[in-house]
Every structure is written in structure tokens, then in C-alpha cells.
Design a protein that fits this description.
By secondary structure, this protein is of the alpha+beta class. The protein has a domain at about 20-175. The protein is about 10% helix and about 10% strand. The relative contact order is 0.14. InterPro entries: PLATZ.
């Protein structure tokens, strides 16, 4: 595939500049209310128009039906895009992906962290977040910012994408609350929970053990409800049920 840098309209841009769609994707605010449809229900802006370089809500889709569209998802209050979609636009190598409900995603921007690691662990080149090997960046923005800081040519990571891969037809199953494309509601489970790798390191050391740096913890697909009364001991239940109301029995006077 020929790698070239293109702006929102598909025109060639200067190789040292970020294309408008990339700049917009990293700078846009998603999941806020749409100003055009502020009186409509479920108007969160969770779609990015690669032609207009702005975020839109599901009610805006008919006005952008001929434009290439990218769905943005939300996880733990941060914006993510499916790796399968993003890698059609830009080289995502060395950006650590995360698996959420069976799909690999990439964070658009770096996330705040309470402390950084100063040990020998594998960390993000831009924000020092702990990563798994062999990744160098925790988000798309971290990779782009690093290349810009190093004065490298962004054209080497940009693809001329095929607009047929980003048509409006991909949003036929889009929930109006904007969080997920649903084929079967029963498949949306808490099977994958994203964790901050820093939580697995104490304040005094930063281990580089791959097993301790796992970013995904898996829980049972179905969370079973606790049975009623399971926390009581049989003896206590028996003693409570055998109590009778009546006058108290007093010991005879000696």
C-alpha cells in the first residue's frame, strides 16, 4: 500500500504537517451533547467525519451520508477507536492495543496518571506510562507527538484510505446512546475490564515482568446473583425461628 498524507478533502498536504482529519480526531471533544440536535434525546457526539473533520451525533448521520465516517467509543471516560478501523488510516505499530469485549482498541489521547515510573520498566516514549513489551506508545496522540517532536516525516505513517471502508452503512446497528454497535445485547458483558498498569506497581519499584504488567483482567461473562440468606449460619437461623413471645421466665428466689 502506498503511504501518503491527505487532508480532509483528500488533497495532498505538506509532509511535515498533521493532516486536518488527524488533528481534528485528537483534538475533538466526543460524547458531549450535539448543539444542532440539543433538543433530541441521545445526542452524544460519537462519530467523527473524516471529510468535515468534526464530531457529530447519530442524528447528524443523514447530513454526512456521502462522507467517510469513523466511530469513536468510550471506555472509562476516555475515547477509543477500534484498531481495525484506525489502522486503515494510519500506521498503529508500537501503539499498545487494549482488548475490550473481544475487540482491540486504541486510545486516542494519553490518560492522566497519578505517578510515573522511574525504574527500568518499558514505558511510553511520550508520557512514561508503563507498557507491555514491545510497545512504545500508549495512545495515538503519544506516537504522533513523539514523531513531531523528533521532526520526523508524518507521511511515513499516513495512509491514503479507501472511503468505502468508512461508509454510513457501518452505523446501521449504532445505538443512539452512542457507546457501542450492538448485534446482540446478550453479548455485551463485563468479560474484559481495562486496568491501569500503574496499579500493579508499588511506589518504590517498577517491575518489568510481563505477567505483572498485564492490562486486562478477565471476569466471568455472567455475574451470578448471590442467593438470599447465603450469608447466615444454619444454627443462627434455627435459634431465631425457635424464639417465642411471652412473659420472661425468672429464676426462683433463693
Amino acid at each position: 500500500m502506498v503511504k501518503e498524507a491527505y487532508g480532509c478533502s483528500g488533497d495532498m498536504v505538506e509532509m511535515s504537517m498533521k493532516p486536518a482529519w488527524l488533528e481534528g480526531l485528537m483534538a475533538e471533544t466526543f460524547f458531549g451533547g450535539c448543539g444542532v440536535h440539543e433538543n433530541r434525546r441521545k445526542n452524544e457526539k460519537n462519530v467523527f467525519c473524516l471529510h468535515c473533520c468534526l464530531s457529530i451525533c447519530p442524528h447528524c448521520l443523514p447530513s454526512h451520508s456521502s462522507h467517510p465516517l469513523l466511530q469513536v467509543r468510550r471506555y472509562v471516560y476516555h475515547d477509543v477507536v477500534r484498531l481495525g478501523d484506525l489502522e486503515k488510516l494510519i500506521d498503529c505499530s508500537y501503539i499498545q492495543p487494549y482488548t475490550i469485549n473481544g475487540a482491540k482498541v486504541i486510545f486516542l489521547n494519553q490518560r492522566p496518571q497519578s505517578r510515573t515510573c522511574k525504574g527500568s520498566a518499558n514505558i511510553c516514549f511520550t508520557c512514561d506510562r508503563i507498557l507491555q513489551e514491545p510497545f512504545h506508545f500508549c495512545s495515538l496522540a503519544c506516537k504522533v507527538d513523539h514523531l513531531v517532536y523528533q521532526r520526523e516525516d508524518l507521511a511515513v505513517i499516513l495512509y491514503r484510505f479507501n472511503e468505502s471502508d468508512f461508509t454510513i452503512s457501518q452505523f446501521e446497528g449504532l445505538r443512539m446512546d452512542g457507546s457501542e454497535v450492538i448485534d446482540d445485547d446478550s453479548q455485551i458483558t463485563h468479560s474484559s475490564i481495562l486496568e491501569d498498569p500503574l496499579a500493579q506497581y508499588n511506589a518504590s519499584s517498577c517491575s518489568n515482568d510481563a505477567s505483572s504488567n498485564s492490562v486486562i483482567s478477565r471476569e466471568p461473562d455472567i455475574i451470578k446473583k448471590k442467593k438470599k440468606g447465603s450469608g447466615f449460619l444454619p444454627g443462627i437461623v434455627l435459634s431465631l425461628s425457635s424464639r417465642r413471645k411471652g412473659a420472661p421466665h425468672r429464676a426462683p428466689l433463693s
